[in-house]
Amino acid sequence: QSISRAWQEQFRAAVEDGIQRLLLPSLEKEWWRECLDRAAEESFRTFASNLRFKLLQPPVKGACILGVDPGLRTGCKYAFISESGSVLTSGTFFPNKEREDVASKLLLLLEKHRDPVIALGNGKGSREAEELIRQLILPKAPSAKLTIIDESGASIYSASPLASKELPNLDVTIRGAVSLARRLQDPLAELVKIDPKSIGVGLYQHDVDQKKLAEELNVVVQSAVNAVGVDLNTASPSLLKYVAGIGAKMAESIVAHREQEGAFASRADLLQVKGVGKKTF
Hints:
By secondary structure, the protein is α/β, with parallel strands linked by helices. The protein has a domain at about 65-185: YqgF/RNase H-like domain (Nucleotidyltransferase, domain 5, 2-Layer Sandwich), CATH 3.30.420.140. The chain contains ten helices and five strands, in the order αβββαβαβααααααα. It has helices at about 1-55, 100-110, 125-135, 155-160, 160-165, 170-185, 185-190, 210-230, 235-240, 250-260; strands spanning about 65-70, 75-80, 85-95, 115-120, 145-150. Strands 3-2-1-4-5 form a five-stranded mixed β-sheet, with helices on both faces. A hairpin with a 5-residue loop joins strand 2 and strand 3. The longest helix is centred in the first third of the chain and has 54 residues, at about 1-55. The relative contact order is 0.11.
């Protein structure tokens, strides 16, 4: 009996040691790994949903837009764009200095156009700029409308080589205001110029696998572009490259052909573009 009891005690001690030292830690790690994987997948779905929502915001067509990139120390940068997105004028104002003069200057711009829209970024200084606009401008320009928009990624675009190519004669700070205005005018066409991860798709996006996140977001951009479609005669290379079957190189070729030969009369004209064969078409 003593031998049996001693064996049982040793067996119980071995089992308890195995459970406490080996099994439970292993199960805990496996459980945490599964929880983290589930959380990551849910994060990817949330980020993708947020990005798609931003990309598919309805565009503001047929209106001139005053884009305002807010700031306090360096002032608010503004850019006024036409219905087609070309820059009409730009400048800087300080929302807390010479408010009446600033309001008069901006009113002159707005009054020249029918039903203008003001696109104000939501960055630092936005509250002061909004106060100026609501108190001194909108009451005197009843046809004008004010919209607060997310400016995530605008500064990244303004300092990019693409922005330098598109807006070579404008200062980097002004390019951000142009981007905000165009973002309201045609969200999809403007946001595709920015790395999807820089658009601000959710909190803690830097805590997940960046490669997987980039892949997931690129799929969303491609899906959105192909769902909406593009205009061959106005689309930029940044937009065209997301169309199914068209990559970055072919997008550049299409735009180059359009600039040299003029507008496309039909989709069949794509066959005239170098690199577009019947199989690709």
